[in-house]
Design brief:
With about 280 residues, the protein is an alpha/beta fold. Strands 1, 2, 3, 4, 5, 6, 7 and 8 form an 8-stranded mixed sheet that branches. Strand 2, helix 5 and strand 3 form a beta-alpha-beta unit. The protein is globular.
Length: about 280
């Protein structure tokens, strides 16, 4: 396996303003259904179900649980797919998100399901000690915050035959365009994940799908003057551009506002996402 150290593009650091924006973003996101449909398709794969049934204890890792809505759906799917014991490790550095996810998952805890929470970043959690530990690693809209070099340890954390399932923004998405306007190091996209996995980890088979989601901006005022922004809108925009909007000048705000207004349709902003299903070979060199 080749090293990914030559890849220098790093993830964007997030501060509290961005995380507040993420909460507001999720509240306004009207299309969790596209991610749920993607997971439904994964769980319908006969080889996926058969693989889980071969494990006496199914080991799962969820990278970046956010508000826990998708994690909860994932657990529902898992507990309905296998009668074996399930151990879920939630890797999430933000305590507020961990608290939200705990509240959603506590009702599932019992004889066949246990969950552990790891308040750290993926690039610090996955390491040689986690090698070949997991049957299934999942991440939805979180990998853009990590360095690409972390993919080495995440990929190595899969058992032979294990699955790495990812939902992440596409390069074509307006979110990527907005981030590239203001951030020196562009956000990681699905294109980057696919390229690195193909180059560095040829022992994985891959399936790719494209899926839209929509940000509901109905009722959100985007005034011409940046000084007139409400705090909620500042949070949403800070997330979208991956930079504190207070640190963006009027000219930059005007450019971002124009891009958003051009893409709006009936108050809905379409976001392009990539979905990947990577499966590690049963035979490792």
């Amino acid at each position: 396996m080749h090293s990914a150290k030559k890849l220098t593009r790093q993830a964007i650091s997030m501060n509290s303003r961005y995380h507040a924006g993420l909460v507001a973003f999720k509240k306004r996101c009207t299309d969790y259904s596209s991610i749920k449909k993607f997971l439904d398709d994964v769980f319908e794969k006969q080889e996926f179900k058969a693989f889980l049934q071969t494990q006496s204890k199914v080991q799962i890792a969820d990278i970046g649980c956010g508000d826990g809505a998708i994690t909860e759906y994932l657990v529902k799917m898992l507990t309905g797919t296998t009668l074996h014991k399930i151990q879920l490790d939630v890797v999430e550095p933000i305590n507020d998100y961990v608290a939200l996810t705990k509240a959603r998952l506590n009702p599932f805890r019992g004889l066949n399901f246990e969950v552990s929470y790891h308040p750290t970043r993926a690039e610090d959690y996955f390491q040689p000690l986690t090698a070949a530990q997991y049957d299934f690693v999942f991440s939805s809209h979180s990998l853009h915050l990590m360095p690409l070099t972390a993919l080495d340890d995440i990929a190595s954390a899969l058992k032979p035959g294990g699955y790495f399932v990812v939902v992440i923004g596409a390069r074509t998405s307006i979110m990527s365009t907005l981030k590239d306007l203001f951030v020196f190091q562009p956000a990681i996209t699905g294109e980057d994940i696919l390229r690195v996995m193909k180059e560095q980890h040829p022992e994985f088979e891959v399936e790719k799908t494209s899926q839209p989601s929509f940000l509901d901006l109905r009722g959100v005022d985007l005034p011409e003057n940046k000084a007139d922004l409400t705090e909620e809108t500042k949070n949403i925009l800070s997330l979208m551009v991956q930079k504190n909007i207070d640190d963006v000048d009027q000219a930059g705000y005007t450019k971002a506002r124009q891009l958003i207004l051009e893409k709006l349709e009936d108050g809905q902003l379409r976001l392009d996402n990539d979905g990947f299903v990577f499966r590690r070979s049963m035979r490792l060199n």
